[in-house]
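Q: Joint fold for the lines below.
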Amino acid sequence: MKRILTTALLISLCVSLAGAQAPWQQIPIPELHKFQPQQPKRVQLPNGMVIFLQEDHELPLVDAVARIRGGSRSETAAKVGLVDLYGEVWRTGGTKIQSGDELDDYLEVRAAKVETDGNADSTTISLSCLKADFDDVFKVFNDLLRTPEFRADKLDIAQKEYFDNISRRNDDAAGIAGREAAKLAYGASNPYVRQAEYATVAAVTPQDLIDWHKQYVVPNNIVFGIVGDFNSAEMEAKLRQAFASWPKGTAAKKPEIQFTSAKPGYYVINKEDVNQSSIRMVALGTTRDNPDYYALEVFNEAFGGGFSSRLFRDIRSAKGLAYSVGGGVGTTFDHPGVVRLSMGTKSTSTIEAIQALFADIDRLSKDPISEDELKRAKDSILNSFVFNFDSPDKVLRERMAYEYYGYPADFLERYRVGIEKVTPADVARVAAKYLHKDQLAVLVVGNTAEFDKPLASLGTVSNVDITIPPPPGGPEAPPTK
Amino acid sequence: MNKRLLRLLTPVIVLCGLCAAQDISSFEKRITVKKLDNGLTVLICERPEAPVFAFYTHVDAGSVQDPMGQTGLAHMFEHMAFKGTDKIGTKDYPAEKAALEKVEKAYSAYIYERDKRVGRDEAKIKRLEAEWHAAADAANQYVVPGEFAEIIERNGGEGMNAGTSDDETSYHYSMPENRLQLWAYLESERFLHPVMREFYKERNVVIEERRMRTDSRPIGRLVEQFIAASFSAHPYHRPTVGYMGDLNSFSATDAQKFFDEYYIPSNMVVAVVGDVKAATAMPVIEKYFGRIPSHEKPEEAPTAEPPQNSERTVILHERAQPVYLEGYHRPDYLAKDDAVYDAIADLMSEGRTSRLYRTLVRDKKIASVAAGFTGFPGVKYPHLFAFFAFPLPGHTPQEIADSIHSEIDRLKKEDISDDELKMIKTRAKANLLRGLADNEGLASQLGQSQARYGDWRELFRNVERIDAVTKADIRRVANQIFVPTNRTVGIIDNAAVVAKGGQ
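A: Joint structure:
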């Protein structure tokens, strides 16, 4: 009798507990305002150039960018740095009719920008101006696109800046860690991560930049997007007039690239002037067209994403071992991303922190991401989903990326559906498939003399040599032309 | 004649291009400001471009308000504002509260013994430290870890963060518009009933932040020493993140006290920008934020920095590559010439037409980067106008100093050109415009202007003030402040270390 009563009491207590919502749970959340983000208009010219037009009349501004196939992953090993230099000198060199300095004056007096840049898989040229100045600024953009002049004195300045960059690259521990970890994940000679040196930068000539431009900057290699305060029909006519007569060229090919991760184990770089170790654990990740992508996104959010992730809660909040901690299985559009877990901890807790992070990885199999953690991660992704398209230029940028990498135009919508379908079993499966403690290369950049224990107490340690190879002309005199 | 007239008209045309939908009067229609009964100011700017909103909570207290011996406390409290309340983040608040009081007792006993000058008992220190840790563990059993941040993340909170500077503390993130009421509850609750739970663990997190930003970065080390040398009396000489000794000393009780004193409604501005209607949102916000109790503003009179009257230099002998930094004292942001300093910073630093780029980078080829900037380390009190540069390999900090000084001499002796003045003014307008296109940027700018000047319109008037700057103003101000006895120099020099075979 007594037992029954207790049980009944317990049940009623549970019911009332479940019924008593926390104050924040009692706040009503109405339907989100209906919102149909405006899609850009896509136009493909007969010469292969793809154009996206996106009107946005909030402010009297126009912004545009042309993304051109071919980037530093295609430059030769003897001239690493070429595309970076190209991205700088393309703009500073100017056009056939106006020097870069003249362009600076012309644009700055209009508070306008025309800029160029070099990346791993593309180069870009962009403009930003007041609507009233568009015709003037677009003329500069088009001149630079079609008839640039890679002036030698500007290459000289860019090379000097590059030498300065090389000379400073071992000053900052976090910078070293990021760079060297990427090399461990992909292999040191992999085109995505290989390093420019004094010699490879010095080897670049103005002719190299001219040749690059000639080879890659052709309409069928370009995805062009424009957003701002214009009428699409008028703008389309303007762009057609500017680009339609431009003859087709040779389409850029995606280079064949090898990814050879370093052997799992421990890698160390001793840096005496720090009191905090920068720790990175890396392996090869995957691509976004992998069906596992959605489960990985949820896993990443739950394991190493935001303030509520396991790593943040355990390593930072519960243990106070790190200010910055997080990571996950990296994905990119067209080549494997990097599995990367990062943290910074005081020198004297280096080994402790590595072991704590390992314990969190181990816990994934013993105590997999729970139903509640999954719900939390999905809520977080789905409720903030609107921030992927809350402005016309974000919508434009997404569409351009899908176009550039051959992803479906509705990839974002597929993403939402994909995330919704992820189950705890999916997350457990991808966690087991992509994240193994024993397959990680663990890099520590820190003051080894102050570590709580030698790194060797965890396993075999390799030293990573980051000595900067001196310039061919001697250590004090980087080569100049 | 016609051509000249046209040229004269050009800036006017540009101006009109700018005033269509983005001048003060257009914002007047979309902005509602209300000072609540408790003294807290709410600003709502309607921008229904997408179903989201951003907010920016501005608290008029920063590390300048850190008490003596407790540097880093303002920043520490900012971290604690994510730890929840008496309802969020706890399994049983009355029990937790009692446990937290025990933690404070145990900690204070430990610190008392640890900091004794004479007659310190090492064994007793160990025992007291263990008792403090045990008390903290006991309190931790009542914690629901990370619940405050979790509620925000689960509800689609984006860009959740906060910042502490010498002058002020801010909190911000964005949310879907249907969470406005939830946000108003959460944001007001954390300034109504903050709980100093997990304080000493979070203090370790902050200490790691110091190691990352200051101790382990050459630039971080330089800036700390440079600031300490530039200010001898005003609290600007102390680092916002705090000194290691203070970080290892102050208590949860200290943080609570700081909160009680400075987080008062009259010190706070909350700006909300996005898909919200003032008519319906203001009552909701008022209902929640109106609950924060008010009391008198604390007495505020940090020591005024005396005239420098000397040239000061700090040199860090490091193995890192050289860096050059110099600063000159200038008056606070309310000074009549504030816009003139903005104009000088723009002229010297903005883009490839800037004087320092053209001289040091392009022509002399002695630096990879060179710029001047103002508002260092804050703006509320008299602060610094500074210049910095990275010398190219083979060039010395002295060459940089000489070149910067000859550029400064030019400013003092010659008027800047018509084109330069025009660029400065056009850029100021265009930069303002480019900052108006997103909720986050607008919320922080409007909130900051409302807090600093008591009127958001100053965001626009600042541009008008820059527009009124003359060539004579620039010469006058340059002659006033850019003098050697008003200068502090900070250098990272690796010559000695390299000579010893350091690297």
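Q: Anything notable?
A: Chain A touches chain B through 80 residues (CB under 8 Å). The CA atoms of residues 4 and 10 of chain A lie 10 Å apart.
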